[in-house]
Fold:
Amino acid sequence: MSDYQHEVEELERESATAARLFDVRRIIGGLFVVYGVIVTIAGLTASDADLRKAQDININLWTGVGMLALGLFFLIWLKLRPAVPPTADELRAATTEDGPTGG
Structure:
């Protein structure tokens, strides 16, 4: 295998790692889980006065559980359908079809 092919394969591996690392589903899911835990804890520790203000509905608890569920949905979605970066051949084909400027 030539040095050029080795470099291309190394760049493809780095591109795949970057695509998985910066997937927006990971960021959104992680933030929703963290904030969901915080809001759920606030809901579990709500006083009677807090509940009376909200007409006896523990809104922090329900919102926290909803945020946890949404965050876990994003993280499970990420796990089941990981981001796959385009291969070098696909990029080359797209560049040839659309021209070097992309349009």
